[in-house]
From TrEMBL:
Residues passing through the membrane, by range: none
Molecular-function GO term, any one: hydrolase activity
Classification via Gene3D superfamilies: Nucleoside Triphosphate Pyrophosphohydrolase, Phosphoglycerate mutase-like
Protein name: NUDIX hydrolase
Top-level division of the source organism's lineage: Bacteria
Alphabetical keyword list: Hydrolase
CDD domains in the record: HP_PGM_like, NUDIX_Ap6A_hydrolase
InterPro entries: His_Pase_superF_clade-1 (IPR013078), His_PPase_superfam (IPR029033), NUDIX_hydrolase-like_dom_sf (IPR015797), NUDIX_hydrolase_CS (IPR020084), NUDIX_hydrolase_dom (IPR000086), Nudix_hydrolase_domain (IPR051325)
Organism lineage string: Bacteria, Bacillati, Actinomycetota, Actinomycetes, Micromonosporales
SMART domains (alphabetical): PGAM
Nudix hydrolase domain mapped to chain residues: 2-128
Length: 289
């Protein structure tokens, strides 16, 4: 039986007494729950989560940390709902409708008592246990650029191919979700091109940074991974949101250093990436896109 896929979020904002989270009331069910909804065909869960929060609450939010997924049965079918914590950055003004007729902002402990379902309470509990997130980094690997052996020029000049450009356009939608203030790229042409669609959509320049490069002849991979990890920490220290495009030979080593999980599988496919959440210089979470 095909499972139902949905996504949503714990949208939060600073309140007079501390952090407040957003709940919605659905008149059809008479319940209080976290905002969520079904994925559109071929839609990325993170895109769906941000979209559904906006549609149900009129809150625009920046995703930060992946929370536990909820699994239960709905209308006789298995259902999986993926959740992210999201910092509210804009509110267009909620208008009651047929799907959601009320929205409440509450401290997390009050929200746990109000929600109608145990799985929502578990998600809220996981959110409440998180340290405050001070920086979000979207770390991606460049898109497909053909085989090294088929390119006659310097490897740094190898461009994206048709598949790579399709990946770059798909990544632009994910990059936009984190509302980055900066876009940084390794110096290879394919890395800069991977951020081109995002740069055009966000009207941001692409900053080329050698600390994001993979090793060149005579350089050690560990040395370059350490440089990438150091630059990511530096960006986290500055706070806010940023998107970074790097290369497959250094991303795994950098994530090993930041997480302390030596030997973990941080292999990143071309056009793939990670959502990194930091509390100052400490990496709180690294979730695959």
């Amino acid at each position: 039986m095909t499972e139902i896929r949905a996504a949503g979020g714990v949208a939060w904002r600073p309140g007079p007494g501390g952090v407040e989270v957003c709940l919605v009331h659905r008149p059809r069910y008479g319940d209080w729950s976290l905002p969520k909804g079904k994925l559109e065909p071929a839609e990325h869960p993170l895109v769906a989560a941000v979209r559904e929060v906006a549609e149900e609450t009129d809150v625009r939010a920046v995703p930060q940390v992946r929370l536990p997924s909820a699994r239960y049965r709905s209308e006789g079918r298995p259902k999986v709902v993926d959740y992210w914590s999201m910092r509210a950055v804009a509110n267009g003004g909620f208008q009651p409708g047929t799907e959601v007729d009320d929205v409440r902002w509450l401290p997390a402990d009050e929200a746990v008592r109000l929600v109608s379902y145990p799985h929502d309470a578990e998600v809220l509990g996981a959110f409440a246990a998180l340290p405050p997130v001070t920086a979000t980094v979207l770390l991606v690997r460049h898109g497909h650029a053909g085989a090294r052996g088929t390119w006659s020029g310097p490897d740094t000049g190898r461009p994206l191919d048709a598949e790579g450009w399709a990946q770059a356009r798909a990544l632009a939608e994910l990059v936009a979700l984190v509302r980055p203030a900066r876009l940084l790229s390794a110096s290879a042409r394919r890395c800069v091109q991977t951020l081109d669609p995002a740069a055009a959509a966000l009207d941001l320049p692409i900053e080329v940074c050698g600390d994001l490069d993979e090793p060149r002849p005579g350089q050690q991979r560990d040395e370059r991974s350490l440089a990438l990890a150091g630059r990511l920490v530096e960006l986290a220290r500055a706070g806010g949101q940023v998107a970074v495009c790097s290369q497959g030979r250094v991303i795994p080593g950098a994530l090993e250093r930041l997480t302390g999980r030596v030997g973990a599988d941080f292999t990143t496919p071309k056009g793939g990436g990670w959502l990194l959440a930091f509390a100052h210089e400490t990496l709180l979470a690294a979730e695959r896109l």
